[in-house]
Amino acid sequence: MSQAIALRDVPRPFPPCRACGGPGPFIFLTREDGYQILDCPACGFITTFPVPDDQQLAEYYNQSYFRGGDEEAKAWGRSKSQAFEQALDLLEEFGLEPGDRILDAGCGHGGFLTQGAARGFRMTGVDVSAACIARCKTIPGVRAIQGIIEDIGESSEYEAVCFLDSFEHLPDFRDALDAAHRLLVEGGCLLIRVPNMNFHLLKLRALQLSGARWKYGLFTPPSHLNHFRPRVLKRLVESAGFRFWNWYSGAPAGYGGLIRRAPLAAVSRLPLPAGRWGREWGPAGNSLVLLAARF
């Protein structure tokens, strides 16, 4: 889409980019559920606009998100199980061992807490949803905290901090990264799983060119506020004081067809393009998983 469209579609004054601070103007990509999806031409970060305020987000998560009770919790856990297993496999590859402490930031119903505890890790979850935390407190051997990661006052307490399909929800993701850096031990692991915008932008372009409709949301506002190309996420993590370690194609989570039946090892190790271009482009697939070390 042209920059002229951006000038007509986005209210002025332009809000600064939440990733690089640039003033815009932003490139208009599409509309979804009454929100605009905007691309920063300076850094490549994509944002939902407008970003709801804290009160609106609190109401959304208390009233509209995770409202299905036990049955929804079980279905959610089943749909994410393979993604959680991949995350635990990657943490072990990084060097974590049973007994190490893992913080799940945005733990939802606690599926990752349950699977991590079953492997012998000491699991802590934090989430804004009171209903989710109440459920997590029933999981044997885990600790559950209602709030956001910035509320946790500890330092150097965890061998890993994970954002599993939660980082894209955060209005203040830079503050969350700073908190993760504070909470991790020296050499600890940061793991972030998010939708892969390289994949979703190709899908959006194909839909725009063909005129076809996609029955699912591509950007799913207002729950998803941040939309990351791999290179943007990598730069953001490095600017927060982490050392990039590796990234992978995310294991399927709730998708049908051939991709859901793909072996985990094959999905986790889809080949990257060679050399520097590959390091900037990132993995293929619907989701990406980035690992970085705290130094």
Descriptive account of the structure:
The chain is 37% helix and 23% strand. Strands 6-5-4-7-8-11-10 form a 7-stranded mixed sheet, sandwiched between helices. It has 295 residues and is α/β, with parallel strands linked by helices. It is globular. The chain has one domain: Vaccinia Virus protein VP39 (Rossmann fold, 3-Layer(aba) Sandwich), CATH 3.40.50.150. It is built from 11 helices and 11 strands.
Summarize the structure.
The chain has 295 residues and is of the alpha/beta class. Helix content is 37%, strand content 23%.
Tell me the number of strands. Answer: 11
Instruction: Look at the structure and name the CATH superfamily.
Output: Vaccinia Virus protein VP39
Query: Total number of helical segments?
Result: 11
Largest sheet: 7 strands, mixed
Rg, Å, rounded: 19 Å
**Topology pattern, helix = H, strand = E:** HEEEHHEHEHEEHEHEHEHHHE
The CATH topology annotation reads as Rossmann fold
How many domains is the backbone divided into?
A: 1
Strand residue percentage: 15-25%
What structural class is derived from the secondary structure elements? alpha/beta
* CATH class group: Alpha Beta
Q: What's the average pLDDT?
A: 84
Please tell me what the overall shape is: globular
What spatial order of strands do you see in the largest sheet? 6-5-4-7-8-11-10
CATH architecture grouping: 3-Layer(aba) Sandwich
Task: Give the N-terminus to C-terminus distance in angstroms.
Answer: 40 Å
